[in-house]
Amino acid sequence: MSTFNPLRGCNSEKALLIGLTRLFCKQQRSSTSTSTSTSTSTSTSTSTSTNTSTSTNAERRTPNAKRPVDRRESSSIFLGRTERRFNRISMSEPTQTKSLKRGRGRPRLFDRTAAIQQAMVLFWDRGYEGTTFDDLIGAMKLSPSSFYHEFGSKERLYREALDYYLKLSTSSLRGFSNHRDTRAAFEALIEEAAAFFTNDASPAGCMISLAGTHLPPQLRSVADYTKSMRKLFEQTLARRLRKGVSDGDLPPGTNVKELAAYFETLFRGLAVHARDGASHKQLLAICRVAMRAWPSRPPDTKGKTALKGRPRLADPDLG
Is the pTM of this model over 0.70? Predict the structure, then answer.
């Protein structure tokens, strides 16, 4: 039996046409099959994406539904949405840093005035150089970083402590300035100083007399500031003396500057004597002798001298 040949009996052009037709039909069937497969795959992927989106939206609509998170993900997963979601969940948890141990920060409750007062007592008792940095932070219960954040340096703290001492020790100067009689005002001020310098509740003597006197050249600014405080006190004494001259309590020719320096020196000497252990009674005895240098007032129009009826320092021996 012979094999069937479609080209038999046909010329070459007709055979070529038939071959091309069959090849074209075969390619069309192959393209149709591939398109159908791609469409099916795309449909399946779209359906899967839709289901995932629907599930995610359902989770978002339910406020209490949270996907359980394994905290170990933070050390092994660093991929886009997974890492960001983990961070959002961690940040949404209640903050508990207040119950954690604090670092080297400023204490929650810090009484600045009380801290300055504690530093004042140390400087007053031990002097500037005798008071160490460890003494200060120990008394004020501050860490080194908190100390520098609050006060900046030891010298700045010393200045603040000295200012605080001046306000404390000169609280009686308002009465001193407004006292009717000049000599009585000085006598009252000396009595108060004698009591203040020998008070058992505080270090003996006077802080501005003792704390910053003997210092090396590199601490000249500390010595100068302490010196300015003593000068300020002397100027206060001089103002009161000038008022006494204008009021007629002192002779017109009184050397106010010298008399103010005399009493300022008296106060400094009393402070040193108190630090050496002198009692209140001993200081008052010194003051009575010192008041003998007070200038006599000129006699009044009736011929009476100013000494009569003038107040005197109290004598402890007389009760």
Answer: no
Q: Is 94 left (phi over 0), alpha (psi -120 to 50) or beta?
A: beta
Containing 280, the helix (H) or strand (E) segment is helix 280-290
- List all residues 6 or more positions away from 281 whose beta carbon is below 8 Å from its beta carbon: 316
The answer to whether 147 and 136 have CB atoms below 8 angstroms apart is yes
Q: In this structure, what token pair is assigned to residue 97?
A: 């840093």
**Contact call for residues 298 and 307 (beta carbons, < 8 A):** no
First to last CA, the chain: 164
* Strand residues in the chain grouped as ranges (E): none
DSSP string covering 155-210, please?
HHHHHHHHHHHHHHHTTTHHHHHH-SSHHHHHHHHHHHHHHHHT-TTS-SS-HHHH
Categorize the per-residue pLDDT at 260 as very low, low, confident or very high, splitting at 50, 70 and 90. very high
Q: Quick one: pLDDT at residue 313?
A: 56
What percentage of the chain carries pLDDT values higher than 90? Answer: 48
Query: In this structure, are residues 140 and 115 in contact, taking their beta carbons and an 8 Å threshold?
Result: yes
Separation CA 196–CA 207 (nearest Å): 11
Q: Which two tokens stand for residue 74?
A: 């933070």
The per-residue pLDDT for 168 is: 84
Digit-coded pLDDT (tens) for 127-142? 999 999 999 999 999 9
